[in-house]
Amino acid sequence: MSSRGDRTDPRVARTRDDVPRAAYRILVDEGADAVTHTRVAEAAGYAKATLYTHWPTRTDLLHAALSLMTEVDHASVSGDPRADLIGQMSGFRSMMEDRGTHRALGAMAELSAAGSPELAELRDRVAAEGERVMRGVLADVTDGPELEAAALMLNGAVLYAAMLHGGPPDDDTIATIVDVVLRGLRASRDG
Amino acid sequence: MSSRGDRTDPRVARTRDDVPRAAYRILVDEGADAVTHTRVAEAAGYAKATLYTHWPTRTDLLHAALSLMTEVDHASVSGDPRADLIGQMSGFRSMMEDRGTHRALGAMAELSAAGSPELAELRDRVAAEGERVMRGVLADVTDGPELEAAALMLNGAVLYAAMLHGGPPDDDTIATIVDVVLRGLRASRDG
C-alpha cells in the first residue's frame, strides 16, 4: 500500500497485474481463441469468479492483455543517430522475439474489425510509447513529413518482416535499412 | 467446366469460391471469433452440412479465408521507378482500404501462435505474391541486401501505418517514403 494513501488492496493489485500477464502469454502462445476466463484463471492461479469480477467479458480480458504492449523497454540513446536507430529497431525486434509482440499487434488489428473506441485509444498509446524514443533520435536528423516517413519505414520494416517473412530482420538487414534511410534523409537535407 | 476436361462439379466449384469469400468478409468485418460454420453458412447462403463437408474445422474455414490474400491486383508498371513504387504502395493501401487486408494479416499473425506449417506456407505465398511486382521494379535500381531492405521498408510502412496509426499512409506520405528510399539507394550506388 503506497504512502500516498492509495487504498487498493494489495491482493487486488496483484490480481490486476498477474491476470493480464497470463492472458497476454496465452494470447501470443496459443492465439486469441484460447483467451477464456477458464484458461486464464487456471494459468494465473486465480478463481474464475475473481476474474469475472474484474474482467466481466472475454473482450475485457483481451484488452487487459493487449494493454501490456504499452510497457516498452527502450534502448538507451548515445547521441549517434545510426547507432541509436539500430538500437531502437533491435529493441522492437526483441519485443517480437521475447514477447511475441507481432502476434499481439496482429490480434489488436484483427479485433479492431469490431471498431471499439477503447481499442483505438489503446492502439494510439501503444504507437506513441513504442515510437517515442525513435522520434527523438530522428528529430536530430530531420523533421516534418520526412520524420513521419522515416518512423513508418523503420518500425514498419521490423513488423512486416516478423509478420510476413517468418521473423524480424537480422542485424545486417537492420543496419542496411538504417543506412538507406539516413542517406536518403541527408541527401534531402543537403540537396 | 473447362475445356481441359476438369471434372469438378460446377456447384462444388462455386461453393469453393463463395464460402471462403463470405468467411473472409466476416473475418475482416467482425473478427476471427465470428468465423463459425453457422455464421459463414448463413452469409454465403449454403447449408451448414455443405460447409462441414469441405471445411471440417473452424481452422479450415479461417485458412480458406486467409488464402484469398494471395489474390493481388498489381498496378501496372511504367518503367519509371518512382511512379511504379508509388503505384505498388498505393495498391497495397487499396487492399487495406477495400478488403481490410491489414486485419486479415493481423489474424494470420495471431493464428501463427499455434505454429501450423500450413499457415507458414500460406504466409510465404502471400508475401511472395504481394512483393512480386515491387521486387521487379526495385531490381532496376538496386540489388542484394539493399533490395531486401527496401522491400521491407516500403511494404512495412504501409502495413505499420494501417495497424498502428489508424489507417495506411496518404499520397503525400507514400511519395515522401519513396523519395527517401530512392535517394538512399542512389546515394549508395553513386557513393
TrEMBL record, chains A, B:
Transmembrane segments: none annotated. Residues 13-73 form the HTH tetR-type domain. GO terms for molecular function: DNA-binding transcription factor activity; transcription cis-regulatory region binding. InterPro entries: Homeodomain-like_sf (IPR009057), HTH-type_TetR-like_transc_reg (IPR050109), HTH_TetR (IPR001647), Tet_transcr_reg_TetR-rel_C_sf (IPR036271). Keywords: DNA-binding, Transcription, Transcription regulation. Residues 36-55 bind DNA. This is TetR family transcriptional regulator. It comes from Pseudonocardia endophytica.
